[in-house]
Structures are given as structure tokens and as C-alpha cells.
Amino acid sequence: MPDQPAPVTAAKTAKSLRTRAAILEAAQALFAEQGYERATVRDIAARAAIDPAMVIRYFGSKEGLFTQATTFDLKLPDLTTIAKRRRGAVLVAHFLEVWEGPLGNSSLVSLLRAAASSDDAANAIRTIFGGQVVPMLARVVPPAELPVRAGLVATQIMGLAVTRYVLKVPPVVAMNREQIVRLLGPTMQRYVGGAL
Questions:
Q1: pTM of the entire structure?
Q2: Which has the closest alpha carbon to 110: 196, 55, 28?
Q3: Contact 27/52 with Cβ under 8 angstroms?
Q4: Which of these, 61, 113, 129, 140, could form a disulfide with 79 (CB 3.0-4.6 Å)?
Q5: pLDDT of 106 above 80
């Protein structure tokens, strides 16, 4: 009788899920600390306390791991439920919450940092933007204006993130969240629904 593969048990499945989660957590931390180029599969494996081959087994490659480690839901607001005059301020406040709030994700910062030197990271940014921000805006923006308005919204979202969290420009870092919403909200408002 041929050898049968060992049955997959709940314990094996649970261990597999824990291993995968440990790899993702280690990768997110190292990509945030070191950026995509400097973080190595060996470093990630060491942080997760596993063999480097396991990283490849679960994610296929460093690029595959990076994609998974930097995939997240921005939990964007439904702009149709927000008063038109407040949409810009709400978006700025929302993105500050995404980056700084209790559910903040350092993956976005690591992704932005890596995008300057990695095509994979730049593509991940475009995918997030195209898959989440554009559809959100499509519900409140005329179709003919959507590409331009979406691009302008991206300049504010990514510009703020890069200056505050990647480059850490002192005056931008020194501002509190309320100041940023007050100062950038009107610009974002124009891009979402004002005259172009």
C-alpha cells in the first residue's frame, strides 16, 4: 500500500497560520525599519524565529512577501454620506488616523519609503490607490474629472505621508493633527469637489 500523506489536522493548520502571521509581522517591522532594499529574507526569518526557506515556502519570494506585508484596507469613508463642504477635511483626518491612530499601519510608510527605489513597491502604491481611492472618489466626482481629481488627491495623501513620516520634515512633523486638517482640508476639498 502506498504511503498516504499525513492528514492535515487542526493543530497543523493553526501552526501554519501562526507561522505565516509571524513572518508577516516580522516583514512589516523590518520593511518599516530598513526599507525594502535593505531588509533581507534572512533577517525577516531571524525576526520570526524560523528558517529562511519557510519565508519562500509561504510567500514564494521577497517580492511576494512584500506585496502581502504591504496589503491593507484603507477603510475609506463613504463620501456620499458626508456633507460636500466637509469631504476634504474628513479625508485628511482619515488618512492621519490611518497613519497615526490605534489601527495605524507602518506598512504604508514602508511602502512609500520603498516606492522610490522599488518597482514592486511603486506598483503596490498604484494598486492601493487605483483599487481603493479611485473607487471612493468615483461615487462623488463626475467621470470626466475623475482621473485629474484622483491624481490631485494622491498628491496630498502621498505628499503629506512622505514629508511627515518618511522624510520627517521638522515643520510638518511638529504640526498637530488638527492643524494639518485645518490647513490641508481646504486644498483637499478643492480637489474632491471644487473648481479645477
A1: 0.76
A2: 28
A3: no
A4: 140
A5: no
